[in-house]
Design brief:
Elements lengths: L1 H31 L8 H18 L18 H25 L4 H24 L27 H5 L3 H19 L1 H11 L1 H6 L4 H27 L11 H11 L4 H24 L9 H19 L20
């Protein structure tokens, strides 16, 4: 029985810590299967993380009569999710406009979004919360299972205790995206645009429309990933978020061969190191005397480097990935 509980605890931790990587990785899958590279996932996650907290904060109607400020814990975290999604979609549109309409360099556009997110969120933190470190605590989904009734199931209930709205989305959406890409006409057109946009165009497929849809969905997923950190795992935004998880999500996408289910399992693999570190810290702290805790903290990043160095050359991305398309150009 104890062994079973340990396994469930392990799975539960992997899902919780893997949620931001899974959601952001799906954003990469959607975008790159339509032929647009989006390394701005990290920056869009930061946007999503901050504006989720901001939305929850300003939705509070309880005003302190002395300070005149809102009670941050009286807000609505669902408004936070809405704010995060809106900002994520706008960031995706910006990347799409530069990459698709202007046919600009997709890497430069994404890097600019990443850089702006760093300075921009620092500015907003100072402007609205008078700090450059982290926001105050706000109403969040932290510790709130989406289906409380499931937590009463013997043994398995422990798994559902940690599954808030974001964790459920991280479990369900990979299958939804897989169904969309591989079992619908829209998905077939989506992948055709990423493989051979000219051929898709001659068959009447709206290449620009599908690419815009892809980058918008990419922003949607990345913003959800950021929100899952600030109001899912925590109840505040820290200026160090997402601490490289956007790039790990890209590595998971490559490791998963640009497929939603592959990305899902790759994200769980990257999360394994974090879970092992927590398990050792709580159950076998004597190991930390031999192997420093910092090694386990750095392990996800080390795995990312090793996999990207040894795996990238052996996998094949969508043929038109990163190549701007202009209607009427020669084959």
């Amino acid at each position: 029985m104890e062994f079973l509980k340990t396994i469930i605890s392990f799975i539960s931790s992997m899902l919780v810590f893997g949620t931001p990587i899974i959601l952001a990785g799906l954003g990469g899958v959607m975008c790159e299967n339509a032929g647009v590279v989006n390394i701005a996932l990290e920056g869009i996650m930061r946007f999503g993380g901050f504006f989720a907290v901001f939305g929850s904060y300003i939705s509070s109607r309880v005003i302190d009569p002395i300070t005149g400020t809102r009670n941050p814990l009286a807000g609505n975290p669902w408004i936070g999710i809405l704010f995060a999604i809106i900002v994520g979609v706008l960031a995706g549109l910006l990347h799409g406009y530069i990459s698709i309409s202007l046919r600009g360099n997709q890497i430069v556009s994404a890097v600019a979004i990443n850089v702006f997110s760093l300075g921009g969120m620092t500015f907003f933190l100072e402007r609205y919360f008078n700090t450059t470190g982290h926001s105050p605590s706000v109403a969040s989904f932290m510790g709130k299972p989406l289906f409380p009734a499931l937590t009463k199931i013997p043994i398995l209930g422990d798994l559902f205790k940690t599954m808030n709205i974001f964790v459920w989305l991280a479990v369900i959406l990979p299958f939804v995206v897989h169904f969309y890409l591989y079992h619908t006409h829209w998905g077939l057109r989506h992948r055709a645009v990423g493989e051979h946009p000219k051929a898709a165009d001659t068959l009447g497929v709206n290449v620009y429309g599908i690419r815009y849809f892809a980058v918008i969905m990419s922003g949607f997923f990345a913003a959800l990933a950021g929100a899952s950190m600030s109001i899912g795992q925590l109840d505040l935004f820290d200026n160090h978020m997402p601490a490289g998880l956007g790039f790990i999500a890209l590595a998971a996408m490559i490791f998963g061969k640009w497929k939603p289910l592959g990305t899902f399992f790759a994200a769980l693999f990257f999360t394994l190191a974090n879970v092992i570190q927590i398990y050792i810290q709580t159950e076998a702290p004597q190991i930390l005397k031999i192997i420093p805790r910092g090694f386990f903290l750095a392990l996800p990043y080390i795995l990312t480097i090793l996999i990207l160095a040894g795996f990238v050359g052996r996998v094949t991305p969508p043929a038109a990935d990163g190549i701007p398309y202009e209607k009427g150009e020669k084959l």
